[in-house]
Amino acid sequence: MAEAADFQGTSPSPARRWLRRTGALLAGAPLLTGLVQLPAAPPAEAAGADASQAASDKGSVSVSVDTLTPGAPTEGDTVTVSGTVTNKGKQTVTDAHVGLRVGPLLNTRSGIDSVAKDSTDVQSVLGVEVGDKYAEKFDKLTPGVSQPFTLSVPVNKLDLGQDGVYQLTVALSGETSAQPWPQTLGVQRTFLPWQPDEVGTKTKTTFMWPLISTSHITAETGSDEQQTPVLQDDDLAEEISPGGRLDRMVALGKDLDVTWVIDPDLLASVEAMTDRYEVPGEGDTSVVGGHQSVAKRWLTEVQKAVADKEVVVLPFGDPDLASLAHNGTSVTGSLSHLKEASDVAPGTVESILHTKPTTDFAWPVNGAVDPSIVKVATSAGADKVIARSDTFEETGDLSYTPSAPRPIGGGTTAVVSDARLSTAFQGDMIKASASTLAVQRFLAQSLTLGLQTGRQRSVVVAPQRMPSASQAQTMAEALTILQDGTWSESQDLTAAAKAEPDPAATTRVPPASAYPSSLRKRELPRATFEQIGRTQAKLDKFKVILSDQSRVVTPFGRALNRAMSVSWRGRQSEAAIYRSGVESYLDTLIGRIRLIDKSETKLSGRSATIPVTVQNNLVQGVEHLVLRLTSTNPTRLEIDGDAYEEQPVAVSGGHSQSVKFTTSANANGRATVVAQLYTQDGQKYGEPVTFDVKVTEITATVMLVIGGGVLLLVLAGFRMYTQRKRAAAREADGRDHEADEDTDDPQNPEAAGERPTRESGTDTGADDPEQPSDPTPDTAPENAGPSGTGERVDR
């Protein structure tokens, strides 16, 4: 036991050697007594139990460490450990006690990993127990029953030596009926960093604090002026509500020296919730969301938290750089989406948080990189790529962890985060025991890293993208202890990237073959980028006809950015549903500008006008459209003297417009006509409308009949004119005759009643005999006398 308790690199003091020997004698005396009292041949059941226990690395009692304070003690502190012990076996444990044991100094980071891996192994070296004074005893532990414990030990009683990390073990010893002697039945190892004095050269530590969520907003918006956004669900409200994951991230991060790493899509989504928004209801209905106050409160808290802190902004939607590099670059237009997502990101953050963010960093999934990922990451303007040391491995013989920045050529810097520190908080942190162990392991790795060399280094911690609330709590606890500690000082990410690179550190980007297969299996497939490209092509064709393009381009552009998000990894079916929803809704909008179907049209005559109606069911007007009407048989039916005619179209929102085309027929029969909308650049828009025109040509016989009818009308008119003219002449002669009779003068030879004869020899008197050819008068004979009072005078 003395050898097991020796610290690496030190020699035990005489007092400690005496203590160890005394402990060994005390531990061996009961064992010797038990051996004397045991029967020569134990029962078979007991022998089987002994064999089973010996074969097991874990004891029959589970020990959990729920709290350890302070996490990094200094001189004069008292270390307090609390937790529970649970009898997992089938036999009652008697004469049990739980105590602390200080193990050897762990001076390597790999040594810490080994202890953490076998933290409950009762067969490993445990070290010497601090003493019974600081132990807690139990008369018995019943199977399946848990008992709490609390152990408090002054730090000077732990007999800690040189600075570094010590293995601290909580061990339960006791007896069972099958093995009636003192033995270790359960342990839990953790770590105790010991750096009581401020070090001369502190490690500069950068901790990235991510504010990232999954995609929530769809491409659909309301038809109102404000374009009410439609969310997939109301899950985001739960995350930002008090106690939610994102609420905890903000509440915890505001008191820490961290670099905020933010997806602008999250901010835009929460801002959309501050006003009217809708979420799907039952069936195809939508309901109005009701978390406006929650959204406003959360954004206000974020603004306060990031004030005077560095904010690094990711491209909008946090696109999956690795998936894009491996599966999307061969699809036309994919890189343009990344560029667009990068361009809109800083403006989004600045308008909401009122702070100017940093846009120089790209963050591939888990910091795994290869040359193609670096190329894609920098294509949108970033010149710093956040990698991780488990994929960006050292190829030299460095005995210490180098600083984060590595110049990798082309003006690009790989900022290599520390894998051990970055992955310390993964897993389920809901249990207090898991959280405590993670905190102590993080602190242990940080201190050991700092003691590796006298060179000052810049270390970056890049945790998981979307920590749970419990993981965020654990991160905050560890970081609080670290920032209050004696071996580290905070540094923002930009300063870490500008730190002097270690000349011995590798600058070679790992090849594509070294990319982790576990990550490659979860990448977005090529079909993702093909569908995004197809949707973008439809959007490009659609937007050119709109009077207000922003109402469509902005929501669909952001939705396509979200469709490339890292958050879809491992959620292929949900990702496909989201992308299909975006494309389907765009198809719906495109279909709202259409041609009205026409039935067969009959054309009687050589020319006619055919109307074609364009309907616009959008809220906004459309323009820059051309309607083409084409005759498939121009020898029978011409349109404006040719095979087709085009006319420009502009239709106000919610209206229809009829466009008229002049046609001419050359022969009888049926001719098929096709109406098709085009954009001004000649691209077809929407589905064509096809209909038949039945032509009936006018024959020569019909023309003769019509001509004869016209001639008869002319003759009838001439006859009526002649009759009226003769009637007028007779009326005039009658008036002259009456005038002659009224002048009865004796000196006038005509007064004797003689009638003079016209010189022409033609008698037109009223008493002349009627000629057979004279037309029958169509009016009654008029009265020759003066009209009486009230009589109608025909004129």
Topology summary:
Layout: H1 2-5, H2 14-37, H3 44-55, E1 61-69, E2 78-87, E3 93-106, H4 109-117, E4 128-129, E5 136-141, E6 146-154, E7 164-175, E8 183-194, E9 203-211, E10 217-221, E11 229-231, H5 235-240, H6 245-253, E12 259-262, H7 264-273, E13 278-280, E14 286-288, H8 292-306, E15 311-313, H9 321-328, H10 334-353, E16 361-362, H11 371-379, E17 384-388, E18 405-409, E19 412-417, H12 419-422, H13 432-450, E20 458-461, H14 469-483, E21 488-490, H15 493-498, H16 517-520, H17 526-543, H18 550-562, H19 572-590, E22 593-595, E23 601-604, E24 607-616, E25 622-631, E26 637-639, E27 644-651, E28 656-665, E29 669-679, E30 684-696, H20 700-742
What does this molecule look like?
This is DUF6049 family protein. Keywords: Membrane, Transmembrane, Transmembrane helix. Pfam families: DUF6049. The protein is 34% helix and 25% strand. A hairpin with an 8-residue loop joins strand 1 and strand 2. Helix 7 runs antiparallel to helix 8 and helix 17 runs antiparallel to helix 18. It is elongated, with a radius of gyration of 50 Å. The N terminus and C terminus are likely disordered.
List keywords for this structure.
single chain, 795 residues, alpha+beta, 5-stranded parallel sheet, 20 helices, 30 strands, 34% helix, 25% strand, disordered N terminus, disordered C terminus, membrane, Ig-like_fold, transmembrane helix, DUF6049 family protein
